């Protein structure tokens, strides 16, 4: 079998190579855009968490927390009442 080179075959091969190159470049751009969007979402989530934590700390600024013996904050809230007393003579 004798294979002969032709101008149309050469152009067809060049167009296939060019099309593959353009397709790979387009897919690369799409993947970079997706990665950048994920990074932006992660940064926004971190910023939102930071702002929520900052607001919580500012809300509790100057308040006193009582820690139990094992280092945990006491979640128990009791309503203290004034105790009446009588003097004993």
What this model shows, in words?
The protein has 89 residues and is mostly helical. It has a domain at 32-59. The protein is built from one helix and no strands. The protein is rod-shaped and about 130 Å long. The N and C termini lie far apart (129 Å).
Secondary structure elements and their pairing?
Blueprint: H1 7-59
Biggest sheet features: none
What structural class results from the helix and strand content?
mainly alpha
**Runs with pLDDT <50, length 5+?**
none
Give the integer mean of the pLDDT values. 85
**Percent of residues in helices:** 55-70%
Following the backbone from N to C, one meets helices and strands in this order, namely H
Radius of gyration: 36 Å
Q: What's the number of extended β-strand segments? A: 0
Key words describing this protein structure:
single chain; 89 residues; mainly alpha; 1 helix; 60% helix
Structure in a nutshell:
This protein is mainly alpha-helical. It contains one helix and no strands.
């Amino acid at each position: 079998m004798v294979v002969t080179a032709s101008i149309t075959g050469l152009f067809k091969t060049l167009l296939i190579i060019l099309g593959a190159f353009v397709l790979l470049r387009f897919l690369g751009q799409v993947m970079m855009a997706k990665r950048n969007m994920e990074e932006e979402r992660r940064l926004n989530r971190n910023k939102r968490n930071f702002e929520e934590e900052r607001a919580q700390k500012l809300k509790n600024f100057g308040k006193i927390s009582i820690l139990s013996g094992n280092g945990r904050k006491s979640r128990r809230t009791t309503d203290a009442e004034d105790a009446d007393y009588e003097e004993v003579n």
